[in-house]
Amino acid sequence: MDFSWTDEQQMLLESTRRFVADHYDWARRRQIIASAEGRSAPVWQQFAELGLLGLNVPEAEGGLDGGPIGTMLVSQALGAALVVEPYLSSAVLATRAIAKLASQQQRSAWLPRLASGELVAIVAHDEPGTRHNYSAIDTRATLSGDSWTLSGQKAVVYHAPLADLLLVSARVGDGREWGLFAVPRDSPGIRLQSFTTVDAQRAADIELDNVSLPAGARVGGDVAADLPAVLDYGLTALCAEALGALDTLLAMTIEYARTRVQFGVPIGRFQALQHRMADMLTQVEQARSMAYLAASRCESPSEAERSAALSGAKVVIGRAARFVGQQAVQLHGGMGVTDELAVSHYFKRLLAFELRFGSTEAHLERYGAYL
Amino acid sequence: MNLNYTQEQLRFRDEVRAFLKAELPQDIRARLLKGGYAGPEDVRRWQRILHARGWGATSWPVEFGGTGWTRVEQYLFELECAVAGAPAQLPFGVKMVAPVLMRFGSPAQQQYFLPRIRSGEDWWCQGYSEPGAGSDLASLKTQAVRAGDHYIVNGQKAWNTMGQYADWMFCLVRTDAAAKPQRGISFLLIDMKSPGITVKPTVLLDGTPEVNEIWFENVKVPVANRVGEENQGWTYAKFLLGHERTSIAGVGTSRRELARLKDIAARELREGRPLLEDPRFRARLAQVEIDLNALEITNLRVISADEKKGAPGPEASILKVRGTEILQAISELLVEAVGVRALAFAAPPGGLPGPAYAQGLAAQYLNLRKLSIFGGSNEIQKNIISQMILGL
Fold first, then answer.
1. Which of A205, A347, B17, B81 has a CA positioned 20 to 30 A from the CA of residue A110?
2. Phi, psi at residue A40, to the nearest 5°?
3. Mean pLDDT confidence for B252-276
4. Can you tell me the distance from the alpha carbon of B234 to that of A329, in angstroms, rounded to the nearest whole number?
């Protein structure tokens, strides 16, 4: 039982925090969101230089092999500043998928370019009807001769409009087998309907209409068992992002309560508000515990153990996200519902957390299956 | 970060489990696992068994006959005991007055009382709350007036837990009525056999006389039984409340009750199917188990931080609030699991119809409302969190 970080992990956390403080302040973030692409190429390059993009690349292949704990610490620091770059989508999910599932040839083609920032990739799994039930996908891949044909729809895929490479999941053969396919975003037959999400990130619905791919586009074999583990790994990072956002939001709220004066005293002197903030802290600390648990168990080969940790984390952090988000807005009063203050932006990011990767209810059900 | 126990900790846990398997009396275990209460005889018997093993006061330093265990080992010991159905040790001696005596007591007090606490020879109770001094403890009025080498104590204590069995009480009394409330309090050790003490049980909502009102009428207490200095009692009282809170979250008890809840939910039927398979009940069960998992890790985080700092911090208040909320939630689900059957409450022995597992569930639910009230009400804990942690 040990809750400390290694020196390397501590350095990673601090360098990410420092980078965010120095290069990703609120004004910069607003500029990036307002830009055409909704991301910053220079920031991405700096991520690469800090080693953040190679965090999920094995050491033997030039990466840092930071594992789930390193990923958690970086994600926490990025979440604390509401970074909108495709870190989770590309450097965690897609990189992890390739590192875990791809052939040697594919790995050497993609991993160095992902780590250097040259390539942005995403995993497209959710579909209009899945509600993030991992196994409810309906996109089809059929093999004829030497080429695959993909047809189907993917829904609310974060960072798809900025990605060079889409890793698309699909049913293969009789449908029990799953395949993952590397699809260049500009392939014929791909149509993206792009939009900005409620938490100011770029995303798209993807339509695949008889997209033709070479046989070598398939990543791994049957990924029905392995892809959920990759998605769980991404969920771990998402949980850490949310934890970072919760920490900042709580700190902002406490600071506001200390300085906002009404009836001649700071509003933080009122017991009704003190107890609310005590409840907020309590939930944030439970969220932290579960983010740690998720990072510790997300690589477990046991589906039951992984579900207990990941779904448990999603439930606890999801509830904290809603409670702390709503109360932070409430305690900021009228200022809480303005666009000007960061509070409302944290609130929106936490709303996105709740809904992404399966709702609280869905994860209660997944947890309950192993009771 | 590593959330697994070390090999050494696992070996330690195995040792505790083996001890519990061999030494925890079967009749006590069976009764407690079914939700029964531990009576005073159970508590005394278990304390003797622990003492024989050298575990009568595991949290104490070695020089006072403790074990020198780490806080994680201490936590594991208490967790395993609770899960196995062992009676909770009486906290008033081992965990409350003893650390005060070690830190502030005279050598004579230490030599006399500590061994008797460890062996279970003396049963201790707490004289803190009064009818007019609950959360605002410093407003207490029980008075001690110096008369030669004695104090003469007059007043009334309330919410005294299991004092009807007690040999001794540690008691806060006012020794300077003119001083500020916190400055005029002294900490006395009172022999419960002293003339002038009247103990009257207060029947609680579950029908049990768990607490008492206690009157003092010209009770003579030797000055030698004052701990530390006169009028410094508040310092000792606060030390006591801040001490030894590794198990304040009650994770072991909640684990035990959750196992019972699952067992009952598997036997109860709803439209011919086990209640456990009902999606709504299952979701609520999942929620409370997840909350408990989160609390367990928070508990271990707090313990690890305490171990490094060498002293418990205000984070224990978070554990108290969540721990009591979770155990209360489990007790609610237990009642709901058996539904209307829980209403069959009292009958001559053996006279209650229905499954044995349904008996006592309502009483337990009622009794456990106390959790969020005693030991510093949850509202007081939130005051502590907002002031000591959030700095508001």
1. A205
2. -120, 120
3. 97
4. 40
Residue B39 has pLDDT above 80, yes or no: yes
CA angle B31, B37, B43 (to 5 degrees): 95
In Å, what is the CA distance from A83 to each residue of A33, A315, A320, A354? 10, 23, 20, 17
Indicate whether B244 pLDDT > 80.
Answer: no
Number of A/B CB contacts below 8 angstroms equals 127
Catalytic site residues of B? 244
ipTM above 0.90, yes or no: yes
Q: Which residues pair with B2 in a beta bridge?
A: A2
Token pair 């998992």: residue:
B293
Is B72–A269 a contact, with Cβ atoms under 8 angstroms apart? Answer: no
Chain B: closest CA distance from residue A149 (Å): 39
Contacts for B81 with CB less than 8 Å, ≥ 6 apart: B16, B20, B88, B252
* DSSP per-residue codes, B286-309: HHHHHHHHHHHHHHHHHHHHHHHH
Q: Which residues contact A263 (CB under 8 A, 6 or more apart)?
A: none
CB-based contact, B135 to chain A, within 8 Å = no
Q: CB pairs under 8 A, 24+ apart, for B342-350?
A: B346/B207
Tell me the two tokens of residue B33.
């696992």
Other beta carbons within 10 Å of A162? 23
How far is the alpha carbon of A68 from chain B, nearest alpha carbon, in Å?
11
Of A2, A285, A292, the CB nearest to B318: A285
Average pLDDT over residues A228-257: 98
Residue in the structure block whose two tokens are 């960061």: A342
The per-residue pLDDT for range B186-240, each reduced to its tens digit, is 999 999 999 999 999 999 999 999 999 999 999 999 999 999 999 999 999 988 8
Whole-model pTM over 0.90: yes
Cα–Cα dist B177/B217, whole Å: 18
